Amino acid sequence: MRQHQLLRVGVIALGLLGAFHGIAFAGPADLALKIPEPGTLTLLASGIAAVGGISWLRRRKK
Q1: Domain annotation covers residue 42
Q2: Using CB atoms within 10 A of its CB, is residue 11 exposed (0-12), middle (13-18) or buried (19+)?
Q3: What domain range is 51 assigned to?
Q4: What digits encode the pLDDT tens for the residues 1-56?
Q5: From CA 43, how far away is CA 46, in angstroms rounded?
Q6: Residue 56 resides in a domain
Q7: What is the Cα–Cα distance from 35 to 41, expressed in whole angstroms?
């Protein structure tokens, strides 16, 4: 029983550290606007199109 409680506390602590990244790693605020490279946008768009195409084909077969 005690191990389950410790496991729960550990999971909650890790979840909170992940949710509040700025609190866990106190560093200077990065106010610069980060723009993704064109290659990243191309890969993202092709992935979204592939998922949409596959779901369209699956719905069409029914």
Answers
A1: yes
A2: exposed
A3: 36-62
A4: 677 777 777 777 666 555 555 555 556 666 666 777 888 888 889 999 999 999 98
A5: 5
A6: yes
A7: 10
Q: Is 9 exposed, middle or buried (0-12, 13-18, 19+ CB in 10 A)?
A: exposed
Is 41 inside any structural domain? yes
In angstroms, the CA 33 to CA 15 distance is: 27
CB 24 within 8 A of CB 17: yes
Q: Let me know how long the chain is.
A: 62
Residue 47 lies in a domain: yes
Instruction: Look at the chain and report how many structural domains it folds into.
Output: 1
